[in-house]
Amino acid sequence: MKILVPVKRVIDYNVKPRVKADGSGVDLANVKMSMNPFDEIAVEEALRLKEAGKAEEVIAVSVGPAKAQETLRTALAMGADRAILVETDEAVEPLAVAKILKAIADEEAPGIVMLGKQAIDDDSNQTGQMLAALMGRPQGTFASKVEVEGDAVTVTREVDGGLETVKLTLPAIVTTDLRLNEPRYASLPNIMKAKKKPLDVKTPGDFGVDIAPRLTVLKVVEPPVRQAGEKFADVDALLAKLKEKGVVA
């Protein structure tokens, strides 16, 4: 069985994003970029399934600029067998990404497509669900535990009310949550080996996918600065202030 793992190049989670002066978007100049943390968890889980003998090959795929090769090399250094970059300098929306992934999955025929539940740059949480719908495959989202047995995968999901366990017939789509595992660090020897692993470069046009945006960003602004609180000597003073603001009659 193959496992296909989409990964995204995003601003490193330790970096505070800056908004461009004209409000047209986020400033990426001289900003540290890294693999989306949820995708890193997906890579780790795919590798663990391979090490357990449940899969034969792990394929990392990314949609983005040429520099996304660095992100794919990180996945290869962790242990993925090969990688595919669908290169484009345009911003690609979740639906277009899902269509590209479907085309790749149709070619590669993976038993599982395992991806992070969301990317930390846009927090869309859409691509996995859209991919499952386009492919007509069962899906297990927000996975905190994944077990493969025979032709099925059991996914323990994190939901508002606690945990939910679903059993999916393969092939299936799985999206990973934070508590699924702790990703490994790539060792120096594996980083060197990753440079020799195959990495194919494609374009959206190779898969016949139109990536023209359907949404227009009007403006990006910093969140408002939180105002300082006020202290009151007693309840009467608090009530007086609330009446002044019209909160209470």
Automatic annotation (TrEMBL):
Check the record and name the SUPFAM superfamilies matching this protein: Adenine nucleotide alpha hydrolases-like
Q: Where are the transmembrane segments?
A: none
What's the cofactor?
AMP
* Record-level Gene Ontology MF annotations: electron transfer activity
InterPro entries (UniProt xref): ET-Flavoprotein_bsu_CS (IPR000049), ETF_a/b_N (IPR014730), ETF_b (IPR012255), ETF_beta_N (IPR033948), Rossmann-like_a/b/a_fold (IPR014729)
Signal sequence span is none
Q: Which PROSITE patterns match?
A: ETF_BETA
Q: Which family does it belong to?
A: Belongs to the ETF beta-subunit/FixA family.
According to its UniProt entry, the function of this protein is described as: The electron transfer flavoprotein serves as a specific electron acceptor for other dehydrogenases. It transfers the electrons to the main respiratory chain via ETF-ubiquinone oxidoreductase (ETF dehydrogenase).
Query: This protein is called what?
Result: Electron transfer flavoprotein subunit beta
What organism is listed for this UniProt entry? Sphingopyxis granuli
